């Protein structure tokens, strides 16, 4: 599972944002089910930032959000993210030099199909 939180950060607040994001990433990394994470800034617009984390499952991510450390260090940052979908299930992946691996959805069948 992939979680992508995007932020618009004015230049004068980027140092404080970066410190808050580092603390949030560290708190998330200490939870069970966390696979990886990174903080990135847009090359085309320095005010555009993203925090990307990967998780074993939706349940692992939801349990992580309930931990005290995450509530203290990550929730305030995540509350600043843009109001848009942020959690995505992986439906296909490929490692370098390998074939695409297709994964079935964990979600119930979509009613609109």
Automatic annotation (TrEMBL):
A Pfam family that the UniProt record links to this protein: ABM
SUPFAM superfamilies per the UniProt record, alphabetical: Dimeric alpha+beta barrel (SSF54909)
Gene3D superfamilies reported for this sequence: 3.30.70.100
A GO term, aspect molecular function: monooxygenase activity
Name this protein carries in UniProt: Antibiotic biosynthesis monooxygenase
ABM domain residues: 1-91
Top-level lineage group: Bacteria
Keywords, comma-separated and alphabetical: Monooxygenase, Oxidoreductase
PROSITE patterns assigned: ABM
UniProt keyword Chaperone, yes or no: no
């Amino acid at each position: 599972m992939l979680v992508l939180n995007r932020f618009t950060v004015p230049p004068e607040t980027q140092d404080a944002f970066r410190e808050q994001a580092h603390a949030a990433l560290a708190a998330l990394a200490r939870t069970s089910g966390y696979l990886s994470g990174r903080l990135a800034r847009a090359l085309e617009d320095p005010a555009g930032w993203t925090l990307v984390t990967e998780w074993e499952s939706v349940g692992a991510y939801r349990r992580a959000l309930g931990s005290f450390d995450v509530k203290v260090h990550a929730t305030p940052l995540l509350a600043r993210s843009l109001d848009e979908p942020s959690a995505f299930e992986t439906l296909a992946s490929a490692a370098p030099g390998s074939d695409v691996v297709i994964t079935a959805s964990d979600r119930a069948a979509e009613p609109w199909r």
